[in-house]
Amino acid sequence: MNAPVSISPDVRNAAPTPEDLTITVRDERFNRDSTPRRWWAGDAFGTAWHNALSATFPRGEAFFIEAVKAHRDGADPKLEAEIRAFVKQEINHTREHIAFNRLAEDHGYDIKGIDKRVAELLALTKDRPAIANLAVTMALEHYTAMMAAEFLANPQHFADSDPEVRDMWRWHAVEEIEHKGVAFDTWNHATKDWSDGKRWRVRSIVMLSVTVRFFKNRWADSLALLKQDGITGWKARWGLFKYLTVSPGVVRRIFPAWLAYFKPGFHPWDHDDRALINVYEGEFSDALMPAE
């Protein structure tokens, strides 16, 4: 059941999030049967990269939820409603990636090592100030939004992939675009007593740190999965590099959006890409497992 979350039109200071934004909780189910082992067009590199991403989502999105919820007190009604919608969407994403990860394991991929690494990294955050976890969440939400927009804008990414897996990633991408400003607006709310300069310095430093860890870990995770497909050494590294930077080249394509994050006064909704959502809504198949 798709449920638009009602968001009041109260004006929030210094937040260009569209006043008419609708965050819809699309309670869809995917991948409950079988999916090809190399579901990304039979290609091991695309399959490994997305499997590695998916393996991080269940724990990662639970972390995002808690980081945002920790700062909702005192939020204005509009932001409060957006946080509720964000939480509902992320809960559904977690459920669907658990199902997807289970299928990957059924096809012989061992992703327990990835999950263990994520758990160990998240354990280190428990003694950190809550605002630090929100800053990390804001940076990673920018990553998901960048990739989401690229996946929807450029059909090449999933053109020849398994149809149901493609639908899952597109569904996830749409909702990431819809709530891409929530963590950022929560950050602005939580740091309302900070100077603009301090906000910019902290979020910029955190983004640089997150970027190094994100690519270091996803690269290692993808190579580990490629090794399970019998692809190792220079062939694995060159093939993965080419996939990420040449064709379809998601890392190369999102670089301008990544760079924009460091602009003073940046906000995720500086670029309104809701047209991508409208295209998805017009094309999306109804042949999905109904919500229980």
From TrEMBL:
InterPro entries: UCP07580 (IPR016516). GO terms for molecular function: hydrolase activity. Keywords: Hydrolase. This is Metal-dependent hydrolase.
